[in-house]
Amino acid sequence: MRGVALIALSFLLVALSAYTGGSKGVLSKALFVIALLLLFAGAHAMNRSAGKRASTPHLWLGAILPVLLFLNYGNPLYLLAVPFLIVPLVSKSEKAFLAIVPAGLILGGLAVRESSFVARFVGAFLLAVSIILGAAALYLWLKER
C-alpha cells in the first residue's frame, strides 16, 4: 500500500510539474526530479511486497500510461498500445509479459517524435527496454527449443 501511495504522489507531482512548466510539455525540473525519485521508491516498495507476480493495481497503472500520453499530446496512435498492456491483466500465463514488447515499441516510437525533451527521453528508454526484453525472450525461447 505504501508503494501505491508513493506512485500516486509521484503522478500528482508530475501533473503539478506539467501545470507549472508551461503549455508545450516543458516540465518544472525540480518537481519532476522529486516525482521521479518517488516513482522509483514506490516501485521498489511494491516489488518488495508483491512477490513473484505483480497484483492487478500495479498492472492497471501501466495500462493507464498510453491514455495519459494520448490526453497530453492528442495523438490517437498512443491508444494502439492499450490492448497489449491489458493482456497481462487478463492472462494468467507467465509469458503474457511478452505483450509488453510491442506496446513499448509503439509508445517509444511515438514518444521519441514528440517535441518535449522528457517525452523523447522516456520514448528512448521504452524503445531500449522493449528491444532488450524482446531479444532476451527470443533468446530464451530459442534456447528451450
Task: Give the tags.
145 residues; mainly alpha; 6 helices; globular
Describe the structure.
The chain is mostly helical and 145 residues long. The chain has two domains: 1-51; 54-145. Helix content is 76%, strand content 0%. The chain has helices at 2-21, 29-50, 56-73, 82-90, 100-112, 117-144. Helix 4 runs antiparallel to helix 5. The longest helix is centred in the last third of the chain and has 28 residues, at 117-144. The model has no long low-confidence stretch (mean pLDDT 76).
Largest sheet: none
**N-to-C terminal Cα separation, in Å?**
41 Å
Strand content: under 5%
What structural class do helix, strand and pairing data support?
mainly alpha
What is the number of domains? 2
Shape: globular
Number of strand segments: 0
Q: Total helix count?
A: 6
Helix content: over 70%
**Poorly predicted tracts of residues:** none
N-to-C order of helices and strands: HHHHHH
The average pLDDT value, as a whole number, equals 76
- Cα-based radius of gyration, to the nearest Å: 16 Å
Brief summary:
The protein has 145 residues and is an all-alpha fold. It has helices spanning 2-21, 29-50, 56-73, 82-90, 100-112, 117-144. It starts with a helix and ends with a helix.
